[in-house]
Records
---
Amino acid sequence: MSPRPVWRRWALAALAATSTASHAELQMSWDMRSWSLEATPSETLQLHAHIHNSPMSTEHLLGSRFVAAYGEGLEGLYDFAPATPSLVEQFAQLDLAPGESMDFLFGLLVPINGHVEPGVYGGGGYSLNFRDAQGAEVSWQPEASLLVRVVDRATPDDPQHVPEPATAALAALGLAAAGCGRRQRKAQARA
């Protein structure tokens, strides 16, 4: 049996050393609470999100290491606006141990010119960046695309439609007149 070549012994030793050495690593993720939203034409949408420090992470996710966030509106329909309070303020006390999570407000989608026509729209791009203990930037961009269904609740076929006061009053008068007419017919039938 021939001895192993020197390079092979060195490679096996290096592999063994790297597999036993501890390596600090931040493994975070985040996602929107919902990628499908419904709104009225003039409604500003709140993008609620959830950040998670993976149980496989070997360090805490700290708000002091927050770098930046990127948000995009829906082209020609909504402008993206920063959250209030800001992400810096929301993450000020952030200290998530591996396996811990937190809900936060990522940003807002504001209708351009105050109004979006009813319909279904999709798009937008979002990312969130932190630094790990070694200073390397860790970021994650969700793969999902935002879907917004804009509905005009003022249409008569909408079950949540509330009639104008004049229409409601006219309907009430009509019902009252029908009730009076019915009462008169009953009275005449008894006589």
---
Amino acid sequence: MSEEKENGKTKQCKYCKQEIDAKAKICPHCRKKQTPSGCLIAVIAVVVIIVIAIAGSAMAGGEKTNTGASTDGANSTSAAQQEITYTAYSVSELMDDLNTNAMNASDKYKDQYVELTGKLNVIDSNGKYISLVSSDDEFAITGVQCYFQSDEQKSAVKSAAIGDTLVVKGKITDVGEVMGYSLNMDEVTKAQ
């Protein structure tokens, strides 16, 4: 072996096996590109994986810190802790607004928490919803579909009959000129 090779100044070409400069990227004899050894590639791959893992951990840790700060603050409250205020309406009021201008009714009532008083018109046999209509209109078809959210609400309706006046609290989720209003119930009782 030559003295230069022992000092690390030369290396053997991977393709033609000729002695070349240790820093050469292309063999001057066969003109082939010299790629890093398999060991070097493995080390680089491990380093890249470690860097990605550290970066991922740092990012995930930052998200947890931000989330914790927003929920643990003294002045912040969760939606469950906030008290909901229900605005009282009769189903007749909602239907009058819908029949006058459905677009305005949607702007006024959609996503609003309401306390509605109306006449029970439909009790779904599958236990998914009830429908309230205006007590002023005995031929009403369109009204407010009130969707059950708990078994307790279903139990309260089991003792009711078509034509009874009910009071329903909940959030209006949809408004449409054909189907009327949709509401997710929070509470349902018979009117006194």
---
Amino acid sequence: MTTHPSRPMRARSLAEKQQRRADILCAAEDLWTTTPYADLSMNQVASAAQLAKGTLYLYFDTKEELFLALVDSHLAAWITRAAALLEERRPRTPAQLADALLEAGQDSHSVRRLLVLLGTVLERRVRPELLQGFYQNLNVHLERLLALMPLEREVSVRVLRHLYALAIGWQHLSEQPQPQKFQPQKLQPRPTDAQTGPALGQGCVLSGGQHDADEEFGLAVRAVIDRMTRVAAPA
């Protein structure tokens, strides 16, 4: 019988299964940095994670379910970091609140990419009951964060809603290619929503790359929080 020493044995304990699941998510995310979502296959993920394809399907039925789990993991991590910073610092001003939320998401590019994917692809293709469970779990995490924010609950909800909208909108802009001279012989197919989401035309002056994207995103977040909390007294 031929053996495959480089391929991990089937996980048996709960800890092993959790580690195997984490390895799968890591492999999928690494692949996504170089492969458009539409071109990424479960076979590629299995190979990158050094698993048989059948083993991969013990953890995730579809690519969409796998990436929904990735969204859930990143959002839970961001909320946990944000909650810890809020609990430690007890911010009282809009600037202090913005500092904590932005510091929690210092490497927010991955989260923003996943939020775009969630709204353009995953919500349409994941089983409704799985999507419902995802949002129920997210609401539990968000309630913990809301309880720590130094504002009335309604204002805190509005701040997080605007933060979500900014994250998606800023990611759409930052993913667009730089304007180029018109070259008919080199025209490329228009990206689909599974790759980048709704796109501006390549010649639009609003399109741009990653230049200073995080810094400018931070400026936008600070401006919104300052405006939203200017007349809101601390709770």
---
Amino acid sequence: MFHEKLLFKLNVLYQKLQEDILPNISSSKDCELDSNILRYKRIFHELFPNLSIDEIRKLLLLLKLVSDRSKENLHRVEIVSSGMSNMNLPVRETIGVIKQLLFEASHYIFMTGYAISSYFHHLADLLRYKGAQGVTIEIFIENNHNENLKHLLDHLNIENLKVYKYNNPSRHSALHAKTIVVDYRVAFITSANLSYNGMINNIEIGALIEGKQVENIIKIFEELKNRGFLKL
């Protein structure tokens, strides 16, 4: 009972500080200033009247660390679909999400797909525009679609574009992931190929994800590069 009551009071204290105090503490040095501690003292003493100034300082720092860690793990997820534009559902369409992601990229675009179809050229002007802005573009595809790939490279002519093919000696392994990552912070993971059917016609489902976990997608492909499974 004592521990439950203590946890409840700590949670109440955290909620009070979270509104307008913890966001204004930029570093541990802010917790060391007596002027700040005296300003927050009343809030602490409402729940823990016997805390000393030093104990308030330590508890404030601990709650700040908890707040920062919770923000790092915070993720936003949005469902995206293809082939359902006439169903009046509260989900966004695949092609619209892809175009918005590419347009909003400021320094890095990462794309993977099983195949490059002729429909991919609907995105070519947008990719060329981002390339001209200095955005680095990396595209990863399966190793068996050479004609459209050659046409893509000739048509885009972007200096800071790199295209990798999956190169695994096993006949039973293929690059089948369909993902787009922008600026290491937002990822779109979908069942849709980069084709007309995938973007418009088929019933496809995907998720738009924002948060720290997005970086792990890039790390997976960096590891594939290191192991020699991706070739320029």
